[in-house]
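hey
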């Protein structure tokens, strides 16, 4: 399939996952991220509450970022879904909806063929947007496009998965406002971080055939 590629996709996050940093806040962030990844309900509820607070705060970069009637769309995992399997992004969507964020959780895209998990791949050889475009498809029973979509995932690194999902949905629903939200954004190079909770708003930019997260 031939796609029209968005020049950019808005993306936000509320916390930092610093893979190499030392110190108390880096360690807290890593532990919190691992709890989100395993579907820990209390931490998901806490993070969803913090998202709601940031959206409401006029001093936050995420103020009013999520449109009131946005459909919450979980980003697919690395393999096709199976019954009773953990879907981290779906768990986060449910927690956000419980906090009054968005209008509904809608499964609009799904993984059709498995890909390698990004965190198990060496830097520079991770799945790019093309790999995700080839292995994610639109769910066939999506009938009417919502006015706005919020793609939701646990972590954003380069943003290739988010970007591929946004591309698929933008091609299917060209009039829909599509944004992305991760609980954590990775920061691989700082030696220390001041605080693990750090609301952030940026973009996934498509230039020269590649996706880059800006700013870091």
């Amino acid at each position: 399939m031939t796609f029209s590629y968005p020049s950019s996709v808005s993306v936000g996050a509320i916390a930092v996952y610093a893979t190499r940093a030392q110190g108390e806040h880096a360690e807290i962030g890593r532990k919190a991220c691992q709890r989100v990844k395993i579907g820990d309900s209390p931490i998901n509820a806490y993070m969803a509450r913090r998202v709601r607070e940031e959206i409401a705060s006029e001093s936050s970069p995420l103020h009013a970022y999520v449109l009131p009637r946005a459909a919450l769309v979980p980003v697919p995992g690395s393999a096709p879904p199976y019954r009773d399997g953990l879907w981290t992004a779906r768990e986060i969507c449910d927690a956000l909806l419980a906090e009054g964020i968005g209008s509904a959780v809608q499964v609009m895209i799904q993984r059709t063929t498995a890909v390698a998990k990004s965190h198990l791949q060496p830097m520079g050889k991770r799945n790019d947007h093309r790999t995700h475009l080839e292995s994610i498809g639109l769910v066939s029973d999506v009938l009417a496009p919502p006015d706005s979509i919020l793609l939701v995932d646990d972590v954003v690194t380069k943003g290739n998965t988010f970007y591929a999902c946004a591309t698929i949905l933008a091609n299917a629903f060209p009039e829909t406002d599509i944004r992305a939200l991760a609980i954590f954004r990775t920061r691989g190079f700082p030696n220390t971080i001041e605080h693990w909770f750090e609301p952030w708003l940026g973009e996934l930019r498509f230039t020269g055939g590649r996706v880059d997260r800006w700013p870091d």
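Residues 8-214 form a domain with the Rossmann fold fold (CATH 3.40.50). The chain has five helices and nine strands.
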